Amino acid sequence: MIVGLVIWIGKHIGPRKRMQIQQEMIKPISKKDEAGYLYAYHLTQGPRVSTQHYCYFKIGRSINPTRRVSQVIQKCNYQPKLLDIIPGKRRTAKQYHQQQTTIQKGDDDGRMLKCPISHRVERLIHMELAALYPITGGFKCQGCGTTHREWFRVKRPMVQVQAADAGGEKWRRMTDQEVWLNKIRPVMLHWIQYGVAASALLQALGSRSPSLDQDLG
């Protein structure tokens, strides 16, 4: 057993999925695996709008997430709401627009923090989310004609809003924002931390293969 890797894989993941994630982690890292951003959005209009019992999230990676989201508007005719771009500080819609303008002008000089080995990190995020939420939210797009993958359907957890009293317990379902902050975003942050640790180790070793897996712990 590879001790340094398994500590990154939560015990809430079943044995088969744990093995698949572990196998992904020990693959040699491609020289083409560039730094980038992980992003998340959901739709306010389109085929995967949240319902009373379920919410849907798109998780992807890009070197320019805001441009990628704008393509969804232009090519697919959907209305996405960008939830976050990671790494980076949380930004308002106006700040996202300002960042997009800066990148399109070519003013990004590399000072913006990016996630290393972002392709590997994205894959690990998708694998854990697929283990937690196995019913995919992917769909064939009528706008652009392609199949949109990497969508996840999440059943809204119930949360107690009032202590038990004579009238009994009162519960409600989590909002989209609560599900995002409590269920989805922590998974993304976890694997981004792994990407940073793995990249630092590989640079120290001068290698593209995480052969000294025990050091990742």
UniProtKB/TrEMBL annotation:
InterPro entries linked: Meiosis_regulatory, Phage_T5_Orf172_DNA-bd
Transmembrane segments: none
Protein name per its UniProtKB record: Bacteriophage T5 Orf172 DNA-binding domain-containing protein
Pfam family, one: T5orf172
UniProt source species: Absidia repens
Bacteriophage T5 Orf172 DNA-binding domain segment(s): 36-155
